[in-house]
Amino acid sequence: MTAEIAILNKSAVALATDSAVTISSGNSHQKVFDTADKLFELSKKQPIGIMIYNGMQFSGIPIQDLIKEFRSNCNMFETISDASTSFLTFLNEIGRAAPETEKKAVIFNIVNPFLDLIDQRIGEAFRKAALQKRADEGSESKFMLDEVVETVVSVMERVTERFQMGNFFKATSTPRLLKVEKEAIVEFVAERFQYLPGEVQSRISACARTLVLSDRLSNSKTGVVIAGFGNRERFPTLISIELEGVIAGRLKFVQTSKCAIDRNGNRAFVRPFAQKEMVARFLYGLDDDIQREIVDFLQRNGRRYIEGDIRQG
Prior knowledge:
3 domains, 8 helices, 23% strand, five-stranded antiparallel β-sheet, alpha+beta
């Protein structure tokens, strides 16, 4: 429920956001409030702003409180890149000091949708196999379940093997999960798949560990946009980052964009964040969904219309 935009040129930066925030309880109960603050000053001493979207908490602390604390203690920055690194360092320390419940919550946000998918695939495949074989006896059903589980888990193993390693703050090698994080994964898998043998649960847990350390972010990620002028920057710079949380003792994040205005390259820059449809329609006259619908329609019907025109001609 968030629409945000950043506009840069040689003279200034404009950041704009709505004030809507969605509070959900489970998958079906949601309520939208329109009083959330998402745009702040990152520094008291320099023209640097920060804009937030999606997750509004980090390690169980409201993100606006963390920004206020950072702003009260930060120094001057030579570049926006320095400001971004300093803010990530601050968040990294906050996350490292978080209680075990928060560390488990980060793991849960990543792993739970993955376990949902596996459970769903097993259920769908088993129902399909049962209809095909018309099995009524328990032994046959048990045999089919074993076959289905093996197929689904093998596919997930092949999929997770292709995942790229995630970007962890100042990591020089592959991070190793903490004991509490490994135990959390085993706990979540065992709770979800009580009907599966321990060996299969171990394989699913291994897939989940790979996912946690990969470059995939959960829907609970926090988007951060930092823009403005550093001491050595004549023109503005923007850096946008998406944060997952601290995993294996290091902040997991993805830098989604960076733009530095200068005389030789980008002289102006417009970028939407979060929900991009409104901005895309305003700038280009259509968004990605409309464009896909047009392309699909032409692919389905274009040849028929062309052949009809040829016959009529």
